[in-house]
Amino acid sequence: MPRRSHSEIEFEAQVPHLVEPAFDPPPRSPPAHLSEDMRDWWQQIGSTYVLESHHWKVLQTCCESWDLQGARQVLAEEGLTIETGTGSRKAHPCIAVERDARAQFLVALRQLDLDLEPPKTDKANWRPPPLRSNRTG
Length: 137
What we know:
Layout (H helix, E strand, L loop, with lengths): L5 H9 L21 H13 L4 H16 L2 H8 L2 E3 L5 E3 L1 H20 L25
Antiparallel strand pairs: 1-2
């Protein structure tokens, strides 16, 4: 292999290398620990939108956060307060779990950019473009 000059090496370092974006096909099945509703939603989103590899991680976070809102059911059964060891009452820990899960769900949902509407004409052939999250422009 011929030797290259220092200027040739510097020039190659300055030339941007084009890299095709990596689009992952939807996983065969959603994570098993998700609720049935979230597994169905996972399949719906995966078949409707073009997701890059990082979007699948955000979608998983979104689904897991929604499932954590099951703390609402615990609150309905046990009430908003619990009794402490000293006999006083304090806020049930599930209040914080539900609040944080709801906030994380909304953040992850926003990062997915799923609020694209189909055009007014040619709805039959419309397919959403790749998601725009974390991109400029």
